[in-house]
Design goal:
127 residues, single chain
Length: 127
């Protein structure tokens, strides 16, 4: 069911809200830990995700990237920006059938005009 535009928008906005409120939640959890000394950090880790500081993340990412380079496959998709078709003539996954139909009609319409112009030029008509 949850494929309507409204539910997609709601899901997107909820994710942004979580991102925005994450620092506040973390500071609240830390303040609670300071007040209640008998609560252990391990208990908090079970409840919430613990964010690693940025300088620490960069070091771990460097190590992970080295490992990924060995296993990397060529999956880069070359896509036409105007028609949104990839090299195999496929549209993106997120595009629905109605949008695909419109783009295809626009593409076909453009092809028809160019053929008509070419025919007029071949006949020698000035208008």
């Amino acid at each position: 069911m949850a494929k309507s535009l409204r539910s997609k928008w709601k899901r997107k906005m909820r994710a942004e809200k979580r991102k925005k409120n994450a620092p506040k939640e973390l500071s609240r959890l830390k303040s609670i830990l300071k007040m209640d000394s008998d609560v252990l950090m391990k208990d908090v880790q079970e409840i919430a995700t613990v964010v690693v500081p940025k300088h620490r993340q960069e070091q771990t990412q460097c190590v992970v990237q080295d490992e990924k380079d060995d296993m990397k496959m060529e999956t880069e998709i070359k896509r036409n920006k105007k028609s949104l078709l990839d090299q195999h003539g496929q549209y993106p996954i997120w595009m629905n059938q109605r949008q695909r139909k419109r783009l295809k009609a626009k593409r076909e319409k453009g092809k028809g005009k160019s053929k008509a112009k070419a025919a007029k030029a071949a006949k020698g008509l000035a208008w």
